[in-house]
Amino acid sequence: MVTQSEDEELELSEDYSSVSRRSSGEEQEQGLLGGWKERDAEEQGKHTSPAKRRHWTWTAWASIAAAAVMAFVITTGFTLGLSRTAEQTSEESQVVHTNDYVLDSDWDFNAPSQRREYYWTVRDEIHNPDGIYRPMMLVNSQFPGPLVEVNEGDTIVVHVNNQAVNATSIHWHGIYQNGTPYMDGTVGITQCPIPSGAKFTYEFTVAGQSGTYWYHAHHGVQSSDGMHGPLVIHSRDEKKFQQMEYATDRVVLVSDHYHDLSSALLWQYLKP
Ligand SMILES: [Cu+2]
Q: Which of 38, 86, 87, 208 is such that its CA lies 20 to 30 A from the CA of 94?
């Protein structure tokens, strides 16, 4: 699936391919029948000494525990500028700018239903959101990802350009997708993954629901490599429901944060 000449990237893609192999339905069935145990023993014997393996397992669990303690709280002030701002492209004039998580105080809740269009580039990057450098997979170099803000009845259009080494997809968590199931973004269920180097446009209308949701990558558990962000759907009646005065309306995105790549974590989660 992935052809890379650089050693470093090859190592990464090998990690990932082992994950997608293990997460296939066939493998899960074998796992239920106990086939995994033998395969794990076999594979670990091949690649890792018992001492190394113990150390590795300890490291993984330590980082999971550390991650739980950290419960990563991110507000606008902490939203990483990272190395780049949003994509500078010729298409930018049409792009909705959401560089932080402060909701627009002049938002028009009665605006006519419209297409809200976003241009997202997915890349592999190395960043240190909590001080520890690690490979991440990010939308427009932002962690957490860019805010999507629409009114109920609007059509969300997201042009995804996958410049990452692995395939990906975006799932719109909690969105009904009535009439557009093929825009749900669940790899292997409603769509094939967006290959490395390919583009895909999500387009769906949000109807019959409002509130604060989130989106995330839905190929393996890439979400835990940083690919997730907030999706706010304003109710047409929001002002009626929210009568308390407030200075600003902001998104606070809370997520787990691991120092290991999802490819290193997933196979452990799937073990019996
Ligand atoms: Cu989800």
A: 208
pLDDT by residue (tens digit) across 202-215? 999 999 999 999 99
Whether pLDDT at 220 is above 60: yes
What is the domain range of residue 83?
72-255
3-state secondary structure of 241: helix
- Kindly state the tokens that stand for 179: 């009439």
Distance 229 CA to ligand 1 centre (A): 11
Query: What amino acid is encoded at 85 in this protein?
Result: T
Same domain, 34 and 91: no
pLDDT digits 0-9 by tens, 20-71: 333 333 333 333 333 333 444 444 444 445 555 556 566 556 555 555 444 3
Ligand 1 center–CA 220 separation, angstroms: 12
Task: Determine, yes or no, domain membership for 2.
Answer: no
| 162 is a domain residue | yes
